[in-house]
């Protein structure tokens, strides 16, 4: 991991810094580059615009690591409302949740119950729920959660991270379920005994895992903005006879819009991950850490906004 990335990740834990960013980001506009807004209405508006451009959407309300059951229930209620609004407005959008937002860390049984109820609600509406993957201490709990829900529902997918050494074994374990898997590189600061540190090694593992997804009966969702990874995904789809309806590319709102448009023009399924909510600072900091050059537009906004 680069020094700049480690430094920005370290800054994410410094309260005065995150407070200053949180207080100014929406007003000065720099947070809107990655976040649709603070309200569901803004996210639904962004989703409708993306649908009009031929893109699918996956909606996420920001927030993670809740520490009490009440907050988990509040997140649950917000996701229920999201599913309802998606149906009412006829949007081509699914949802994705972070398990720690539904209580995985503080009340795992409650988390299972709430996630199951959301998946059931989504099934009734003909919709789909994906589960994000968070930092490495939560991976066992997240996979167990996924496996339990998959026993009764098939409208549920899971994200896995190419930077973790364990992911190939996890895919072998999940293979009999023939799941929809979102493959991402991984966005957290992980210790060297659990994760590849260099971009080269992460990319190499990403390609190896993509091959498994295309070859072994998974429904692949390739979550990346990396030209090389997308090119390889197209190659695997051709090699393993997967039509464009059988897999998709996912990208984050506001990143590589040019590539998103290009994929739609070429006839691929493109799904954009749209986030919103008031708890946007940790997500925003991860986006800065991925590409330290992004710090430039924050500094420019701060200088202009004074
Ligand atoms: C749909 C989706 C869902 C995700 N879900 C999860 C999850 O559940 N768990 C998890 O740990 N991570 C998740 N991530 C984040 C992921 O792990 C990576 O951190 C992120 O996607 C950057 O990796 P990359 O594959 O784009 O490749 P990189 O090698 O990081 O970047 C490739 C190129 O993409 C562009 N780019 C990438 N990031 C940025 C950025 N922040 N700002 C501007 N340009 C950028 C640049 O042009 C860069 O050269 C998700 C990513 C996507 C797209």
Structural overview:
There is one protein chain. This protein has 306 residues and is α/β, with parallel strands linked by helices. The chain has 2 domains: 53 residues, no CATH class; 243 residues, Alpha-Beta Barrel (TIM Barrel). It is 50% helix and 14% strand. It has 12 helices and 8 strands. Strands 1-2-3-4-5-6-7-8 form an 8-stranded parallel barrel, surrounded by 7 helices. α1 runs antiparallel to α11, α5 packs across α6 and α8 runs parallel beside α9. The protein is globular and about 50 Å long.
Structural features:
single chain; 306 residues; alpha/beta; TIM Barrel; 2 domains; 12 helices; globular
Structural class: alpha/beta
- Radius of gyration using CA atoms only: 18 Å
The outline comes out as globular
- What share of residues are in beta strands? 5-15%
Order of helices and strands: HHHEHEHEHEHEHEHEHEHH
Count up the domains.
Answer: 2
Distance between the termini: 33 Å
User: What is the strand arrangement across the widest sheet?
Assistant: 1-2-3-4-5-6-7-8
- Overall mean pLDDT stands at 93
The number of helical runs is 12
CATH architecture of the largest domain: Alpha-Beta Barrel
* Ligand list: flavin-adenine dinucleotide
Q: What percent of residues adopt helix (DSSP H or I)?
A: 40-55%
Main β-sheet: number of strands, strand sense, barrel status? 8 strands, parallel, barrel
- Number of beta strands: 8
